[in-house]
Amino acid sequence: MSTTEVRATATVQDSARPPRGRAPRTVEQANRRLKWAMLTPALAFVGLMIVFPLAFTIDLSLTDAFGAVNAEKRHVGLRNFVDALSDVRRFWPAVKRTVVFTVGAVALEMVLGLALAMLMRKPFRGMRWVRTVLIIPLLTTPVAIGILWLLILDPTNGVANHLLASVGLPRMEFLGSVSQSLPTLMLIDVWQWTPMVTLLLLAGLTTLPEEPEEAALVDGANAWQRFRHVVLPMLGPTIGTALVLRAVDALKTFDILYATKGPGGGSDFETETLNVYAYGLTFDYQEYGLAAAVLVLFTLFIVGVVVTLRRRSGRKDAV
Amino acid sequence: MTASHATAAPRGRTGRRRGLAWLRGAAITVVTLIFALPVVWMFAAAFKTNAQVTDPRVGLWFSPTLENFRTIVEDGQILRSMGNSLLVGVVSTALSAVIAVPAAWAVGRFRMHRTGSLVLVARIVPAISLLVPWYYLFARIGLVGSYTVLILSQMFVSVPLITWIMISFFAGLPVELEEAGRTDGLSAFGAFWRITLPLAAPGTATASLLAFVFSWNNFMFALVFADDRTQTVPVALFNFISYASTDWGGLMAAATLITVPVVVAAVIGQKHLVAGLTSGASKG
């Protein structure tokens, strides 16, 4: 908060009392007071619930906090960070899974989402119903989605293997095996979130001007050329927004992983991402200090991804 | 593509265009089925006996039974959790709207983008890194397991969400109306309260509905902060997996009960929900 902002907040606190002869003289003055009166509750909430806890987490990451929450804790410097970064059994595999999951799932979601958006771009009969169907996966409780796919993908009784067998393909283990669990969960994520990308891009497509495309049509550009050289560049900022939104959420995926594979991401930690790892450290092992260090590293990682993606997509105003 | 184009084109091209339109219709149908069928499969399984659920040859044609729902109702835990989720969702959404809508107005109306981007911090930070300190704090004052903590922690999601959606909504409203109100003798707050806020009602409704759905779905916060008495639907469902993992029918009935309100919301508020979910992304 800059100094002018601090001063303005102070003014609001003054003006919360009846003005008593200090009534705002101009419209601007009144607006400014109101502006800060309206902002203060939300800013206070954000400060209390986010800024303070973040500071606490950073402090916690420098201590040996363990066990009961009111146990004594000592500052141990960067030991937790050294422990985390030298842990090749849980930490680094979790980093790798987080990256694989995010890159794989989001790349598929972007390509499929863009293809679907182009497919649905021009109005068609039943558009309303198709859009309704598209929002259902992204509004449905992720735990319910996990359960529904556990049933469909059940290795012995699931309909997925039944369908595979009926067209002569080999049966799969899906979530029942160490090697297939993560790819399976990526596909579930693709099923759940591709509609989000499609809807975002459809909204972006409706705001594009028609003239450039018409001009390209007159110049004899075919459908692919119009898409590649006219629509795609104009849609760039919206694609960037969708990419950042999906990347941030995919990095933080927790619900379907935990609901389908349980604590630790399975017997061999096969779906344990950073988020699942940090959760287990905190609430299953009470390793608060180490967990906080992992979370600080995880947060920095996400911020790095967001900054990189936003710089590359040239977008300043929206995540 | 307009009709005049099509009639002007030679016959062969018309045929090709019709073929393409047919292909597009078929593709859209297939895609829609891919997204709809898993959910339909879950709904269907809720009305099957356990023998039918675990037999993939039983498709969508069978004689339905309400047995699974009877089990759920008799057990009571799922219904109780739906009550808890309703309470947490309504209270957290209402409180969030009260502080987020005015803030969004200030940001949108005065173009305070730097302050507005604080909202993004809340989106980026992993929720667990806030859960640990909250847990520390709330465990010390003995609040873990209470509705208060569930509501407060949910507001961490709802306040930024509602603010985010409403900023672009307010930015799209004309300033002139408020200014006309001021000229007619309304105070700055009066102009907001009597003119802008009523105009923003549809946006507020959308944002609140989305915030409620997110609260209804939130798993991690409830997993940490709820106890047996206050557990919300995702946690009840999660626990159900572990103590009734062979009762697929019951599980599907529970999942169906929890999903139906969301599907109803999607059908009724389809247009507005899409606008809410995609707000901020469509301004080029």
TrEMBL record, chain A:
CDD domains noted in UniProt: TM_PBP2
Keywords assigned: Membrane, Transmembrane, Transmembrane helix, Transport
Membrane topology field: Multi-pass membrane protein
Extent of Polar residues compositional bias: 1-14
ABC transmembrane type-1 domain ranges (all copies): 95-307
One GO BP annotation of this record: transmembrane transport
Coiled-coil region list: none
Subcellular location: Cell membrane; Membrane
InterPro entries named in the record: MetI-like, MetI-like_sf, Sugar_ABC_transporter
Main location (coarse class): membrane
Any Pfam family: BPD_transp_1
One GO cellular component term: plasma membrane
Record region (Disordered): 1-26
Record-linked Gene3D superfamilies: MetI-like
Record field: transmembrane: 36-56, 99-120, 132-152, 288-309
Family named by the database record: Belongs to the binding-protein-dependent transport system permease family.
Protein name: ABC transporter permease
TrEMBL record, chain B:
Regions that span the bilayer: 21-47, 86-106, 118-137, 149-171, 192-216, 248-268
Main location as per UniProt: membrane
This protein's UniProt keywords: Cell membrane, Membrane, Transmembrane, Transmembrane helix, Transport
Subcellular location: Cell membrane
PROSITE patterns with a match to the protein in the record: ABC_TM1 (PS50928)
One Gene Ontology cellular component annotation held by this UniProt entry: plasma membrane
Keyword Heme set for record: no
Membrane topology: Multi-pass membrane protein
The ABC transmembrane type-1 domain, residue ranges: 82-269
UniProt GO BP: transmembrane transport
Similarity remark: Belongs to the binding-protein-dependent transport system permease family.
Protein name: Sugar ABC transporter permease
Lineage: Bacteria, Bacillati, Actinomycetota, Actinomycetes, Kitasatosporales
